[in-house]
Amino acid sequence: MIHYNDKNKTFHLQNDQISYVMKVDEYGVLSHCYFGSRLPRYSNYLSYPVIHRDFEVDFVDQNQKTKRDWSLGNILQEFPGYNHGDYRHPALILRQMDGSSVTDFRYQSYEIIKGASSIEGLPHAYVDSSELAETLKVRLGDPIHSWFVDLYYTVFRNHPIITRWAVFRNESAEPVTIERMASFSLDLSPRPSEIIQLNGAWGRERMLEREAVHRGRKVYDSKRGTSSHQQTPFMALVSPNTTENQGVALGVQLVYSGSHELSVEQDPYQQIRLQAGIQSTGFHWKVEPDQEFATPQVVLAYSEDGLNGMSQAFHHFLKNHLIPARFRDKERPVLINNWEGTYFAFTEERLHAMVDSASDLGVELFVLDDGWFGKRDWDDSSLGDWFEYKTKLPHGLKGLADYVHSKGMQFGLWFEPEMISEDSELYRQHPDFALHTPGRAKSYGRNQYVLDMSRSDVQDHIYHQMVAVIEHTGLNYIKWDMNRHLSEVYSSAFPYDQQGEIAHRYMLGVYALMSRITSRYPEILFESCSGGGGRFDLGILAYMPQVWTSDNSDAVARLKIQYGTSLMVPTNAMGAHVSAVPNHQTGRKTPLASRAAVAFYGAFGYELDFTKLTKSEQSEIKDQVAFYKNHRTLFQQGTFHRLLSPFEDDGNLTAWSLTNDSQTESMVMVFQVLRKASQPLQVLKLEGLKSECQYRVTQVLGEGAWGATLSKEEGGPEAEAMSLTDSACDDSNSNNSGVESGFQSFEASGAELMKAGFYLYPQVTKDFVGRLFYVEAIK
């Protein structure tokens, strides 16, 4: 998979799908040649031309000879330095003791390693067998000082993926400070390009935004101490004609959960530089002699099959090489979380009633959210006091856990391990445990402070508290939340000249705690959360196989949120729940069936109080749960295709599908937000089927009715329809009085379904209608 041509000094990383080519030029600069679809061989013809450009700084080699027609400011580099003639953004800035900052690294050696190398203290991709990947380590060195940069490139046998990261090593006699170090830098030849990013805010995470790449540098970053709701550490460089199913897409994801910085830069000659890494604002890292610093990993995906091709490359790779292997094929349970059903106002009796109803409806996991610990009756106390609140739970957590387990269900708890309340036993004993700058007031966020997770004693304290609760209750699931961002970042555990390290050390401490807990309890299902999707990134997924996608559970809002999130991660990593109406975040009333139709395409569950529902609503939920279980493998393991985008046209129609590996069945969701007068007919084209295969398309959910339960155990669709009631917790019947009528059922070839499509008919007569179509191969 990795080939080195000593004559031409070229490295060619390849598998059956992609090639990545680099060259060591005559001056020792590691230059970029190619990244794209597979080249059977590389002929060394694509060397950067010798060209003189006015007002570029001439290159000076190690012998002080000037090269007039060659400049670092022009060429395509793999890891550009600083203050040496390249005026584009550098990958590395170092500060010496005397204040100088010239960064100039040249090629020294290489090593090819079987498998995927690990990164100590940081999340990273893995392989089950060393035969599935090869890693190239290229060492660059400073010509004057004993400084070295090791660049790592891993190519995987079955994926159009390259992972990259870098390690700086100081073998000089003096300390040196890193002021900026990117995980990767990639220079590309001139090409018309557009950039896709995912931005947002609380309750509207990962909004897809696409624009042309213009002259200059554009940065997508977070300075919040987390990957954030506001800017996900993802970007994709695409051709202007790239669609979901055709065109070039180069995706970039950072395997990191802290403050980050991704950028795209176009120079005056239309060359493009992509970079990603730790946020450089406020960052500096002191590297003592014989010490080293490693960057987070970055994952690069290449597709010529559009954005769906890029996303599927990410999805398949993450399932097999990043998300914990023990959850790769493991079924995720249908859960009920009590949060929006009770908030803090629960009693043991009320929880028992919720458990009883959940058990009757077929739910498999009961999760007790915030409010079970310390003296927690509101969000202004007790974080850090991870012991049971006996006033609320007279029989303790063990009593509740035993009750849940006696119903044949699993039991889960909410934790916020990284936070501390001022009104807590922990703060009264250890006020120094909170991140704070001496002499400055501490800022509140959600009535809480942030623990100094850079300190091992803080990590140990929280670890032992969590272990005690887990051992006491026999937990099956943990929701790990993080409800505020970092401020006044300073640690009394480190000297003044290392305070620029604390934000990153905080993240390293969180990873260390996550690693200890998840390694000790590999059977526990962990779900990450940060005020919803405020820390949804590959760093978290390396420890926890699913993330609460957003606190906004409104079905309409979730169309964009889940669509955008699907660019980067598989659907079974996205927590998705059916909640009550009016929705607690938007106030919108949507049909219960439509909420389920959207939530099925995620780690599925409920977030409401079943005991407040009518009998007919409970009956419908029981049918939803049974339907999901019957098709759980398809919903959790299928290949995802985006079909109609809520970000295009007027956003009124969204469609997506999941298809099994053998392409014998697919589940298609179509959601229409508003009914419109005299609306045109819509043709839906499917993806991911076999052209030559014949399929039966059966509408199983539509406006006001289920067409069939599609129970596999009973051999196919049931004839009897299940009428849909109105929305849970809504006493109005204005939105959902329809009954089953005009459901589509027909047969067609895969070629017809993908190339010609089919009419979405009859048209819906109400707002907020989700439809499901089951596509099954018949011959």
From TrEMBL:
Chain sites annotated for binding substrate: 202, 369-370, 446, 479-483, 529, 551
Catalytic reaction annotation: Hydrolysis of terminal, non-reducing alpha-D-galactose residues in alpha-D-galactosides, including galactose oligosaccharides, galactomannans and galactolipids
One Gene Ontology biological process: carbohydrate catabolic process
Coiled coil: none
Gene3D superfamilies per the UniProt record, alphabetical: Aldolase class I (3.20.20.70), alpha-galactosidase from lactobacil brevis (2.70.98.60), Golgi alpha-mannosidase II (2.60.40.1180)
Catalytic residues (positions): 481, 551
InterPro entries assigned: Aldolase_TIM, Alpga-gal_N_sf, Alpha-glycosidase_related, GH, Glyco_hydro_27/36_CS, Glyco_hydro_36, Glyco_hydro_36_C, Glyco_hydro_36_N
GO molecular function, one term: alpha-galactosidase activity
Keywords attached to this entry: Glycosidase, Hydrolase
Pfam families named in the record: Glyco_hydro_36C, Glyco_hydro_36N, Melibiase
Known EC number: 3.2.1.22
Domain Glycosyl hydrolase family 36 C-terminal: 654-774
Domain annotation Glycosyl hydrolase family 36 N-terminal: ranges: 29-287
The family this protein is said to belong to: Belongs to the glycosyl hydrolase 36 family.
PANTHER family xref list: ALPHA-GALACTOSIDASE C-RELATED, GLYCOSIDASE FAMILY 31
Name this protein carries in UniProt: Alpha-galactosidase
